[in-house]
Amino acid sequence: MLKPAPVKLDYKTKNLTTRLEVGDIAVIKHKDIDEIAAKSLASKKVAAVINCSQSISGGYPNLGPTVFINHNIPLYELEDGDLFRDLKEGDIVEIRDDGLYRDESKMATLKSLNTDMLLQLLEQAEKNIKVKLEEFVDNTLTYASMEKSLILEEQKLPDTGISFQGRHVLVVVRGKTYKEDLKAILSYIKDEKPILIAVDGGGDALLEFGFTPDIVVGDMDSISDECLKKAREVIVHAYPDGRAPGLERTKGLKLSAKVFPAYGTSEDIAMLFAYEKGAELIVAVGTHTNMIDFLEKGRKGMGSTFLVRMKIGTKLVDAKGVSQLYGTDVDLKHVLWLGAASLIPILVLVALSQPIQYLVKLLHMRLRLYLGY
């Protein structure tokens, strides 16, 4: 049983996370909840999560629910009731036994998803992965054929006041391990000073590390107002027919924005934009590169991503997961040992070289005269 707590509700998990406070009970409707969404909820230290949809439907092994288990956050699924109809934001509710109560009135019947149940669901999903893989491949090939103009035809790129010619470009997406990967390449960013392109929420990822994006690209649905106002330029990703829902957001903030109509995902066109503008190297962080990534984003294929990466070729360095290749923490004792080891060849050189021995003796004599002994 959990103590009474305020409830917060939203059909879009990413919108809900902006309003959550420690100890809230989060009510979502998120089928096959993905790892990134789960981590965003867990970071708010909520008391519990109630999902009004299937947390694991069995189509593929999504890892979002395991995040709650690892953070000791109870996860429930709705079995009976309509919370979005019957509750309002801020209502004080209580979870006990198999129900959700408000003022002693039972509002819904809940099912608790424990570790054993989640493992069973994930095991079943693993068995279905081959079917999902076949569907994913077919979808990718179909859309690659439909969207081949993305790389075969010249794209109408928006103008920019930033020169890309011969420079490095860092494209940041707020995907899995983006924090760890950005931390791992901080020295590269500080030394090379690449052009920083943020894809939607990737802008806030850069702000977390003290960097301001040069360009923000996307449909503007998961980026803060603060970041949009700070970015040097804003490019709204539009549908091929020119419709750009994200423009409403920028107009509401009284920001000047350019439009880039193109097939594919916003991260695809961000990389394509950098390539076509003459970037020497494109480094990508947090991007979506595999079937699970795309399924968790609600996409059933990766046709445009396949095409764009094929066109960019060797100019692209994908830094996703680079933090897992090596640790970035340096132990002080290792630095001291390294410093001590570096003195060995110097000492050997002094011992063997007559001129250096003479110079050391001379310096020693002058030091004695200076100190008066």
UniProtKB/TrEMBL annotation:
InterPro entries to which the protein is assigned, alphabetical = Put_SteA-like, SteA-like_C, TPK_catalytic, TPK_catalytic_sf
Q: Name one Pfam family in it.
A: TPK_catalytic
| Keywords of this entry | ATP-binding, Kinase, Membrane, Nucleotide-binding, Transferase, Transmembrane, Transmembrane helix
The chain positions of domain Thiamin pyrophosphokinase catalytic read 191-235
As recorded in UniProt, coiled-coil segments are: none
Protein's UniProt keywords contain Membrane? yes
Which residue ranges traverse the bilayer? 335-360
Show where the SteA-like C-terminal domain sits: 320-369
Name of protein: Membrane-anchored protein
